[in-house]
């Protein structure tokens, strides 16, 4: 069974601060996905990373896939209240999900 | 593209009744759909994999006679919660993979909030 561990589980920061969320596993994944979910809604795909060492940027969000394809990180620059939500990493043919990181950005 | 819808978005039912939730892929055909359950402030828990034209594959600990899944067409999968009880109250989310996508990316529906009284 492929497991994904996310850290931190909860993060509360002020608007304008930077943050990084980590997604780690002992297993190799052919790809990893990052999703953002707001209360009462389904997860929305942010990015899929496929190649080891790959870096993808989505406005203020930077996603990195580890060289060995066992881990990934999400970095948010100058966080805004609109970034508040549950961030989930997922991977594998059965989409194993990490436990999620609940981010709260205070104005 | 890759839009998935769910219906209803929320439902309240009495204990002992059955509830059907529909999951549709709107702009693509999905041979495989997935059903998840999510409790408050927790991550998604895979319940079953729904395969068009064949029986669903259930995860360990998920009662197949309790959660009936039917994937009768390439755009529709249904989850029926039979003889619902308050402990079945949860947020149910379906997802699908786009055809030809070589990654494991899934596209999720907006979820269905089930409350059993």
Q: What do these coordinates show?
A:
The complex is a heterodimer of chains A (107) and B (117). With 107 residues, chain A is mainly β. Chain A has no helices and eleven strands. In chain A, the strands form two sheets. In chain A, strands 2, 4, 5, 9, 10 and 11 form a six-stranded mixed sheet that branches. A five-stranded antiparallel sheet of chain A has the order 1-3-8-7-6, with no helix packed on it. Chain B is 0% helix and 50% strand. Chain B contains no helices and eleven strands. The termini of chain B are far apart. The model of chain B has no long low-confidence stretch (mean pLDDT 92). At the A-B interface, strand 5, strand 9 and strand 10 of A face strand 5, strand 9 and strand 10 of B.
What characteristics describe this protein?
heterodimer; A: mainly beta; six-stranded mixed sheet; 11 strands; globular; B: 117 residues; mainly beta; seven-stranded mixed sheet; four-stranded antiparallel sheet
> In this structure, how is the largest beta sheet of chain A organized?
6 strands, mixed
Q: Which structural category fits the helices and strands of chain B?
A: mainly beta
N-to-C span of chain A:
40 Å
In quaternary terms, these chains amount to heterodimer
The separation of the N and C termini of chain B measures: 37 Å
What pattern of helices and strands is seen along the backbone of chain A?
EEEEEEEEEEE
Shape of chain A: globular
């Amino acid at each position: 069974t492929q497991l994904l561990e996310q850290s931190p589980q909860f993060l509360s920061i002020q608007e304008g601060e930077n943050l990084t969320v980590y997604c780690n596993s002992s297993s190799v994944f052919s790809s990893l996905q990052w999703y953002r979910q707001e209360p009462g809604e389904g997860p929305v795909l942010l990015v899929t990373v496929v190649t080891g060492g790959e870096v993808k940027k989505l406005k203020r969000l930077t996603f990195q896939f580890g060289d060995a394809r066992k881990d990934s990180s999400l970095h948010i620059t100058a966080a805004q209240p609109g970034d508040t939500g549950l961030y989930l990493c997922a991977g594998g043919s059965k989409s194993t999900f990490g436990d999620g990181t609940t981010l709260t950005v205070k104005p | 593209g890759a839009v998935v819808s769910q219906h209803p978005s929320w439902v309240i039912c009495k204990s002992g009744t059955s509830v059907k939730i529909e999951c549709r892929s709107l702009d693509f055909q999905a041979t495989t759909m997935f059903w998840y359950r999510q409790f408050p402030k927790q991550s998604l828990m895979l319940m079953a994999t729904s395969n068009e034209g064949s029986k669903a594959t259930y995860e360990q600990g998920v009662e197949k006679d309790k959660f009936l899944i039917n994937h009768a067409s390439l755009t529709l999968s249904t989850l029926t919660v039979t003889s619902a009880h308050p402990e079945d109250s949860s947020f149910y989310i379906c997802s699908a993979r786009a055809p030809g996508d070589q990654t494991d990316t899934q596209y999720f529906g907006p979820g269905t909030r089930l409350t059993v009284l």
